[in-house]
Amino acid sequence: MGCGNSQEEVPKASAPNLLEKADYSESYIRNKSVINRKLLKVILLGDSGVGKSSLMNQYVHQQFAAEYKATIGADFLTKHVMIDNVPVTMQIWDTAGQERFQSLGVAFYRGADCCALVFDINSEKSFDSVTSWKEAQIQNPHDFCFVLLGNKVDIENQRQVLKIQRVNPLMMSGVQKESSQLVSAKNGTCVVDAFDCLAATTLNRDDLVS
Amino acid sequence: MKKRPASFNLFKSKDDGVPLSFVRIEEAIGGVISQFSPPQERHSTQTSPVTMRTSLNLSTRTEVYLSDDINLPPQIRKRNMVINEIINTERSYVEDLDIIIQIFLIPFKESKLLTDSVVYEIFSNVEALVGIHQDIAAQMEEDARKSNGSGLGDIFVKKSDHLRFYSLFCSNQKRSTNIVDKLQLQNNKVKDLLRRCESNPVCRSLPLGSFLIKPVQRICKYPLLLRELIKVTPTGSSEHAQLLEAQQKIDLVLAEVNEQTGEDENREKLLELQSRFEEGTSLVTFNRRLLKMTTLKEVTGPFRTLEKFKYLLFSDALMRAAVKITGKLAVREVILMEHLSVLRADKPTDIVFKNSANNNITIASAKTQELREEWFSAVTKAKQFSLQLQLKRRNTVAIGNHSYHPPELHVKTSQPEPETPAVRMRCQTTIGRMGQLRRATRDRKRRLSHEPPQRDDHLYQTFSCHYKDKRYVRLLSHKDKTVSLLDLNQFIEEKFGISNLIIRYKDDENDLITIVKQEDLDIAILDFRVESFFLFCEPETILKKNATLTRHRYHLHWCSEFLSSLYFCSIALSGVYNCGSALRLRGHPVKALNGFVCTNKIEIIWPVVVLSDVSASPCLTVSYSG
């Protein structure tokens, strides 16, 4: 809720009890190398109702609110992860609301490294509008790394869109196809995988560019 | 932490001799004014950072305003949850704004590391926003308690006009971030202070930028929240109708804020671009946007060599510019959008631009075929868009003429009314222009017995009031600490013949002056710090005479000088004169607002208020065209 969620990401100066967990526990990663840690700003774009906020929540909190989904989730959430032995802080921005207002949206895309285009695999429309999201919102598409995420794979029987593999390559030019996945924010299928993959691709791309 | 200026107590209590009309104004303009009268808990948060932290920690737990009992009918339960979410998020938003002020703004102001104007550039009018949202949150909470949240729509309807204050904030946002980034690189002291502020636990290790973006985020959420609430409200109910109205209003305001932000950004961009051109080139015009800029090559000259040209596609024209040896750009040709057509040439990278005005044809080659296609579609889109815009503009004019014309009021002002005198008030801001300054000083000398100390000429301000076009008075100069309450009171009584005008003039620390007139005209002028003053008028009594115009409010928010003659002025209006809310002056020609025509001076004439800025150079005047 609002800033509430990000509260959890406050680095606690002393949290030794958390260290007992696996080596890659968040606090470990957090403390390991503050200096070398990279910050990846990821923005989620897509039609309303495709589950952008849910994806974010599932990835960061491993939670899915089936009963009542808050209309507006956190503005952004952060998660500390290890990508190829590099500590990375993922900062995931939900774009709920401002995508309708182009001039107001600019502020959010500023400094973003990666843009995840989210669609609902049960809704052809949400898939079709992915392109327009990409074009309408991003002014300098070359600065971004794009990935496609098809959400709601848990609703198998209604699946209408399975075209992710046979996407018109021209239409989706600039999208990192190898990082694009089908996920489910509800049961968590591939969510962590998808975000990790996205982070890795972005990092690789950045390395290549620089 | 510095104690809040005493001015904040000014409106606090209604029983310490504040007259009734004062209270009435306070209520009428509560949303904006309440920033001067923060609720009690805010006072407690100011006294010690520890209390603040606790209160903030508490807030992260979500409050249940309406029951979310599982046994409730699902529709009602869902509705309660939506309402809870709206109120909770509003609360936490207010807290975030509070953090901006308490943790960042106040220390920055006190540190004196930056000039007031830079501080204002960073934080913009966030103080005004806090006031608005504290008020909204409080009203929502009360509504949830008393009427089960059924009045939320009404609150949104009433407050939507206040949200126009976001125009200023949002258009400033980008510049603000740039300044913060730049300062961090250039100024170690600022960087240290920023680090110290950000290390406060209440900031949750978020940088200042994350907080300053919150208002932009928040205002975008209202349509979503309202949409959800509408979904779970029974259709046909009065509440439903109210919510629909609220949604409409908020959408309108947001579209406006969005447009203003875009325009501001666009203007900045064009100005930047303009500086790359040879001197004397003017690119900035109303509504012009840069859509595309690329270097394309043309075969030119006697030797038919390939030369680079900059192609700039604007929303209204295509421009070809040559790159000079100096690096500056020189305009070669401008093709208006209606004369422009594009064709694909045989060569896959070539594109043909045709100017139907003089039948000129230019063939340009792009680097790749992809780029050519981009250009082709960009031009086609731009042509369509300009056509749409023309149509839209035609419609807007028609609507504007219809609804913005208030002839009765114009007649009214010209007829002096013995009982309820129409007060024409002129507020002038005089800042640092020598001629005006001298005049102002002379006038003041004549009218006030005291000679004020001229310690900061550059921030010197005067307001003058015209009364029935005849008498006028320079009311006050806020840097002028020698004007006593008594002086002012006498002065107004003498000049206006208004004896029961209540003037509140706060001590040196606050630079706050409030003038409230009880019967004929309610005016409150709040002069808060150097950068901005608020002028609130409730010309209710006068407007009452017109059956159609019973209750209108004018909120003028004027943020004057900062950064050497850059001017920001944002005017939020409600009621019939809904003129598109905000007018921003940046020392450049101002666009014509709906119903207002711009000359090179700005003067906004309402039936009762004339607000003019004579300090901007060149002088800017907007006069009502009605």
Automatic annotation (TrEMBL), chain A:
Keywords: GTP-binding, Nucleotide-binding. Gene3D superfamilies: P-loop containing nucleotide triphosphate hydrolases. GO terms for molecular function: GTP binding; GTPase activity. Pfam families: Ras. PROSITE patterns: RAB (PS51419), RAS (PS51421). InterPro entries: P-loop_NTPase, Small_GTP-bd, Small_GTPase. Signal peptide: none annotated. SMART domains: RAB, RAN, RAS, RHO. PANTHER family: RAB FAMILY (PTHR47981), RAS-RELATED PROTEIN RAB-7A (PTHR47981:SF20). Belongs to the small GTPase superfamily. Rab family. This is Uncharacterized protein. It comes from Planoprotostelium fungivorum.
UniProtKB/TrEMBL annotation, chain B:
Residues 78-260 form the DH domain. SMART domains: PB1, RhoGEF. PROSITE patterns: DH_1 (PS00741), DH_2 (PS50010), PB1 (PS51745). It comes from the Eukaryota. One of its GO terms (biological process) is intracellular signal transduction. Residues 439-448 have a biased composition (Basic residues). GO terms for cellular component: cytoplasm. Pfam families: PB1, RhoGEF. Residues 460-540 form the PB1 domain. InterPro entries: DBL_dom_sf (IPR035899), DH_dom (IPR000219), FYVE_RhoGEF_PH (IPR051092), GDS_CDC24_CS (IPR001331), PB1-like (IPR053793), PB1_dom (IPR000270), PH-like_dom_sf (IPR011993). One of its GO terms (molecular function) is guanyl-nucleotide exchange factor activity. Residues 402-422, 435-454 are annotated as: Disordered. PANTHER family: FACIOGENITAL DYSPLASIA PROTEIN, LD03170P. This is Calmodulin-binding protein. It comes from Planoprotostelium fungivorum.
